[in-house]
């Protein structure tokens, strides 16, 4: 029996040694590996970098987690990733192997780890990128990453590459990111939106993507033209015009309260929504109870005309939100959409817990007008 156990352990050790050798070989085969981390905008930034780089002569392979995990192969085909069970960071190694088999020159990966230790492992034992991205530092996943923005920043810094470069658009935490980068002999760049990106809904994401493309050697005009037609995440921020003229805003993929506020203010300014009546739709996940209080505070701040509650924690939300009309909706088909041009619905909370089905329902009853 002891001999059998010894043989098994030897086989496991041999496998791990071979796997480590193979991953190192794969990593070295790519000219650049770009690892995108941050609180918000990871998927969009990954896709923007992908689109900007495809105007070059490089073969690009990318992978995003987003609302639906998928990879974009060297032929620019989007393929959904089938998962059996919960998400696991070992998925990154499978993607690296696929990119290697397709002879990709550049690999762009969205970080899928939230736990600080797993972020460190994914970068230093698996991905081994030479270009790092930290989109921004915002208050989210506080149960894992820390209660303060400083703690969250240090957590995100676990994916900074050694002897490489790192890009961020977060001016408030640039010094912190730069300090951590210097420990790894990595140079940090602050990406700032300019006239070429200010017209976009999230100019910071475009600024980072353009800077990454410029660093690699793609000129501004080519990379920007590529980004103008980039492939959006299937359920990212989008606006629909409903049958009776009302507007539906899909903000379900924007989870942290800071981004929800920023998006709301930006869209109200851009589309003159301050003159319309706000209807707030909140769809919450059972395992995101800590976000309920954030949703309550946001609702009480913006003072909507009506509130629709879906998903989990609805009765808690109803008891704490100050609004004359609050309705709990248990079936998507019961969602009131007969609103005229003087009203708009802002959907927030989470894309999980039937969020995708809500947007599919909206798509059949409204026309896409902006993304």
Automatic annotation (TrEMBL):
SUPFAM superfamilies tied to this protein: MurD-like peptide ligases, catalytic domain
GO molecular function, a single term: ATP binding
Membrane-spanning segments: 6-23
Keywords: Membrane, Transmembrane, Transmembrane helix
GO CC annotation, single: membrane
Any GO BP: capsule polysaccharide biosynthetic process
Protein name: Poly-gamma-glutamate synthase PgsB
Lineage: Bacteria, Bacillati, Bacillota, Tissierellia, Tissierellales
């Amino acid at each position: 029996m002891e001999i059998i156990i010894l043989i098994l352990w030897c086989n496991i050790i041999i496998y791990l040694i071979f796997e480590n050798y193979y991953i190192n070989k794969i990593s070295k085969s790519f000219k650049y590996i770009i690892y995108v981390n941050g609180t918000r905008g990871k998927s969009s930034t990954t896709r923007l970098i992908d689109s900007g780089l495809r105007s070059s002569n490089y073969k690009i392979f990318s992978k995003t987690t987003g609302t639906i995990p998928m990879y974009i192969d060297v032929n620019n085909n989007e393929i959904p990733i089938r998962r059996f069970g919960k998400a696991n960071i070992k998925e990154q190694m499978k993607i690296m192997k696929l990119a290697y088999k397709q002879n990709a020159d550049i690999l762009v990966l969205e970080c899928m780890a939230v736990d600080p230790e797993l972020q460190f492992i994914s970068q230093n034992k698996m991905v081994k990128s030479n270009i790092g991205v930290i989109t921004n530092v915002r208050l989210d996943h506080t149960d894992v990453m820390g209660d303060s923005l400083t703690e969250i920043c240090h957590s995100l810094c676990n994916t900074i590459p050694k002897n490489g470069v790192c890009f961020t658009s977060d001016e408030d935490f640039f010094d912190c990111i730069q300090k951590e980068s210097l420990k790894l002999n990595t140079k940090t760049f602050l990406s700032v939106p300019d006239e070429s990106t200010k017209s976009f809904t999230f100019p910071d994401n475009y600024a980072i993507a353009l800077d990454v493309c410029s660093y690699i050697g793609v000129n501004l005009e080519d990379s920007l033209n590529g980004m103008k037609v980039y492939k959006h995440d299937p359920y990212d921020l989008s606006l629909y015009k409903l049958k009776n003229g009302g507007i539906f805003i899909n903000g379900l993929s924007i989870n942290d309260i800071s981004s929800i506020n920023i998006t709301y203010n930006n869209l109200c300014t851009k589309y003159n929504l301050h003159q319309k009546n706000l209807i707030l739709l909140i769809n919450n996940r059972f395992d995101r109870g800590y976000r309920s209080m954030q949703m309550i505070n946001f609702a009480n701040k913006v003072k909507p005309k009506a509130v629709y509650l879906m998903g989990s924690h609805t009765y808690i939300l109803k008891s704490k939100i100050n609004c004359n009309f609050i309705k709990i909706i248990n079936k998507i088909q019961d969602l009131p959409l007969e609103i005229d041009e003087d009203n708009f619905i802002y959907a927030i909370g989470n894309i999980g817990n039937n969020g995708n089905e809500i947007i599919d329902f909206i798509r059949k009853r409204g026309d896409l007008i902006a993304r």
